[in-house]
């Protein structure tokens, strides 16, 4: 974690807490955002993903208060406030950040945990609308903060992730898989995390210290994410039903082709993306371990084409950004869209010695839709949720 960046965020959230509640918080909890290196839209199909946590995070400051009231201040939204009673049913709010806080409290209650009143301040530096999982970072940090304040050690990291996913699915209203929350909770510094989204088994995949993980924002804010995400998920479920499998993870390439009769072309292409992406993800982990950038660059390129043509979740600006990056990198590094799609970011894995030159090249050849330069985030593979 970049010490200076964390220090600024820590000071910001602590000062806001002191200013509003008149006392120091008893605990600070940090949870990272993530970038997915490969394995897109495979998680809710019980498949494989390869994300890494990044050194951009959400920090929650928390302390007790009497009664059953929870009071929250969101530092990143002009210190906007929310207050709710733990004894009343969840009530959806217009401001989405409020639903995340209320949803985590409700999800912990659903798990049988007994919560009490709390004062909370929240601040984060995970870019929003970029596909870097600011919402999962927030959910995991809140789940850890509530739990450690009231019942220390009651939930392990996997259970914290499942709580945050439950909140997204049942209270916020996004049918997300487990990837974002699990890597935010369980990541190890210096590694990506290979996740089997069915068993929830994880395997750290070391990223060479000579490689940089570069996230480049296209300048296109992600749009229609929830509706398109939920539509893709339904299409995948329908495809799995056609093939008679529990999830597309269980489908082989051979079955995909041999049993496609009667499946509409759109559903077939959705299934083909998931089946081939699972295979690419497992191969990419092996390539990363071996330091084989040539194979990794090929796999990431194939992944992007599949997202563009079969899953149809890219946009022209993202496609152009990937094309420009690939022109520069050749087989010396990989680049692809990352995240749910429809805007946001691309991720590149490149030798650190080439990171600055890649930025210069992209700035020379790419402009955002509003005629600006793309935003670059040079990320360190970071550890998961922690009490600071």
How would you characterize the overall build of this protein?
The protein has 388 residues and is an alpha+beta fold. The chain has helices spanning 3-21, 96-110, 134-150, 157-172, 179-186, 225-243, 253-258, 265-290, 293-309, 316-329, 355-365; strands spanning 27-38, 48-64, 69-74, 80-85, 118-124, 191-196, 202-206, 211-217, 334-338, 345-351, 375-379, 386-387. Strands 1, 2, 3, 4, 5, 6, 7 and 12 form an eight-stranded mixed β-sheet that branches. A hairpin with a 5-residue loop joins strand 6 (191-196) and strand 7 (202-206). It is globular.
Features:
12 strands, four-stranded antiparallel sheet, 43% helix, globular, eight-stranded mixed sheet, alpha+beta, 388 residues
Helical element count? 11
Q: How are helices and strands ordered from N to C?
A: HEEEEHEHHHEEEHHHHHEEHEE
Strand content: 15-25%
Estimated structural class: alpha+beta
- Measured as a percent range, the helix fraction is 40-55%
Low-confidence stretches: none
User: What do the pLDDT scores average to?
Assistant: 94
Radius of gyration, in Å, reads: 21 Å
Count the strands?
12
The geometry reads as: globular
Distance between the termini: 12 Å
In this structure, how is the largest beta sheet organized? 8 strands, mixed
Summarize the helices and strands and which ones pair or pack.
Blueprint: H1 3-21, E1 27-38, E2 48-64, E3 69-74, E4 80-85, H2 96-110, E5 118-124, H3 134-150, H4 157-172, H5 179-186, E6 191-196, E7 202-206, E8 211-217, H6 225-243, H7 253-258, H8 265-290, H9 293-309, H10 316-329, E9 334-338, E10 345-351, H11 355-365, E11 375-379, E12 386-387
Parallel strand pairs: 3-5
Antiparallel strand pairs: 1-2, 1-12, 2-5, 2-6, 3-4, 6-7, 8-10, 8-11, 9-10
């Amino acid at each position: 974690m970049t010490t200076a960046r964390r220090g600024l965020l820590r000071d910001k959230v602590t000062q806001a807490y002191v200013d509003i509640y008149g006392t120091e918080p008893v605990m600070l909890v940090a949870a990272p955002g993530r970038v997915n290196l490969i394995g897109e839209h495979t998680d809710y199909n019980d498949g494989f993903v390869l994300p890494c946590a990044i050194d951009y995070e959400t920090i929650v400051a928390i302390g007790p208060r009497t009664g059953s009231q929870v009071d929250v201040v969101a530092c990143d939204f002009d210190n906007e406030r929310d207050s709710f009673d733990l004894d009343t049913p969840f009530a959806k709010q217009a401001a989405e950040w409020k639903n995340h806080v209320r949803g985590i409290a409700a999800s912990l209650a659903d798990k049988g945990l007994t919560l009490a009143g709390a004062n909370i301040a929240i601040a984060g530096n995970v870019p929003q609308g970029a596909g870097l999982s600011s919402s999962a970072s927030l959910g995991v940090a809140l789940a850890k903060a509530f739990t450690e304040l009231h019942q220390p050690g009651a939930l392990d990291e996997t259970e914290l992730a499942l709580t945050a996913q439950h909140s997204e699915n049942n209270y916020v209203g996004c049918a997300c898989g487990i990837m974002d929350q699990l890597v935010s909770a369980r990541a190890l510094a210096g590694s990506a995390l290979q996740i089997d989204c069915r068993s929830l088994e994880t395997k750290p995949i070391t990223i060479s210290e000579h490689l940089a993980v570069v996230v480049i924002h296209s300048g296109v804010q992600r749009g229609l994410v929830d509706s398109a995400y939920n539509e893709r998920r339904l299409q995948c479920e329908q495809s799995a039903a056609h093939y008679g499998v529990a999830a597309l993870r269980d489908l082989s390439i051979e079955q995909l082709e041999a049993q496609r009769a009667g499946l509409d072309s759109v559903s077939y292409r959705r299934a083909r993306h998931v089946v081939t992406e699972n295979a690419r993800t497992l191969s990419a982990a092996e390539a990363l371990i071996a330091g084989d950038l040539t194979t990794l660059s090929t796999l990431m390129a194939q992944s992007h084409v599949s997202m563009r043509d079969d899953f149809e979740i890219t946009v022209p600006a993202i496609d152009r950004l990937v094309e420009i990056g690939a022109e520069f990198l050749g087989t010396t590094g990989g680049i692809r869209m990352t995240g749910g799609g429809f805007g946001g970011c691309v991720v590149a894995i490149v030798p650190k010695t080439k990171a600055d030159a890649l930025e210069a090249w992209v700035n020379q050849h790419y402009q955002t839709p509003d005629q600006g330069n793309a935003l670059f985030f040079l990320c360190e593979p970071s550890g998961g949720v922690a009490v600071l």
